[in-house]
Amino acid sequence: MADGLAVEEDSNLRYSYESPRFKVLVTGGAGYIGSTLVPMLLSEGYAVVIYDLFRWGMQPLLNSNLDTRHLEIINGDILDDITLESVVKSSNAVIHLAGIVSAPAFNRYPEIAKEVNERGTKILVDSLKPDQPIIFASVENVYGRSALNLKGPCTEDEECDPLSPFAATFVESEKLVLKSNGVVLRIPSAFGISPRMRLDLLVNNLVFQACTKGHIDLYQADFKRNFIHVQDLAKCHLFTLNNIDKMRGKAYNVGHESLGYSKRQICEIIKDQLPNIRISEPKDEAYKDADNRNFETSFERIKDVGFTVTKSIHDGVTELLKIVPHLSEAEIKKCQAL
Ligand SMILES: NC(=O)c1ccc[n+]([C@@H]2O[C@H](COP(=O)([O-])OP(=O)(O)OC[C@H]3O[C@@H](n4cnc5c(N)ncnc54)[C@H](O)[C@@H]3O)[C@@H](O)[C@H]2O)c1
After folding, report:
1. 94, 137, 177, 193 from 245: Cα distances, Å
2. What number does the ligand 1 atom closest to the CA of 230 have?
3. What are phi and psi of 215, to 5 degrees?
4. Is the domain of 243 the same as that of 329?
5. Which of 46, 27, 20, 52 is CA-nearest to residue 238?
6. 119 touches ligand 1 (CB under 6 Å)
7. Domain limits at 329?
8. Do 16 and 138 have their domain in common?
9. How confident is the model over 256-306, as pLDDT tens digits?
10. What is the pLDDT of residues 115-130, one digit of tens each?
11. pTM listed for this prediction
């Protein structure tokens, strides 16, 4: 349970049959990260409110083997300020995952996406009770130009200088969250299986191409950046909640330096297990990363508070290769939706 918060004598933060559990609002709780995180929170003893408009349906929650006794589900839009405010007020802490979550998705409807990502966070932050903790899932893309010009690993003290309008919305949200003494988690690309599956994420997508076409189109092959397994990422949110007092008011790069790879290196790991796949490097820039991520990250700050990862890229590729070849056309379509 949330350390410093749970010890207060007469608060409602401790739980038992008599007293209410510590209630965590998870916006976007039915998404890729959320559908892995929510079962962890429930089994750790938290009560959970999922607030989501279920863009990907309810299936992720059906797949999650949830203990529903301490779960509440609200089908709502993050932009519905009246409903959201009352849900925030009746919770003890907030984990904010809802949003438009990739540059291609953002670019499809940029105005709505900006509204969801920026005003959604503002409504949440404005609804917080004094001293109510909030944890925000941000993106490593916020560093933009600052990271590209660096000689060494990128620390949290580097200026945020985003390249894409998508990443810029996270910079704005981060400012609001940090001003409210919340925690910002700057997250690299996740990989691995989750009840709501995403095949647009780099590692997942490379495995998907290899399985379905026997061939990978590799763009920006030697660009190197960091990755994290979705279960470690969910654990990081749980860890942050459990250590909220010592982590508040700061941004953290999430991950571990052992998970820094070029795209070419990831393809080699896949090729170790699927030796017959072909890899080509198209000259056009059809799938160029909008944020040109190609940098090393420092994880000293998150290590100092005690977080580390448990799963490697190799673990993720092995796991993906067991599942991805068996996805149906309909399932693939859903997992590719942005
Ligand atoms: N998955 C990653 O690799 C990764 C990496 C860095 C940062 N993040 C950030 O973590 C957060 C969650 O990402 P994810 O991978 O779980 O994405 P996801 O798309 O799987 O989940 C997002 C959830 O938000 C919900 N949502 C969208 N718009 C909403 C709205 N207006 N109101 C209420 N709910 C809404 C969707 O229905 C979905 O369930 C995002 O902010 C994303 O940018 C993710």
Report:
1. 14, 18, 15, 31
2. 1
3. -155, 135
4. no
5. 46
6. no
7. 202-226+259-292+311-336
8. yes
9. 999 999 999 999 999 999 999 999 988 776 667 777 888 899 999 999 999
10. 999 999 999 999 999 9
11. 0.94
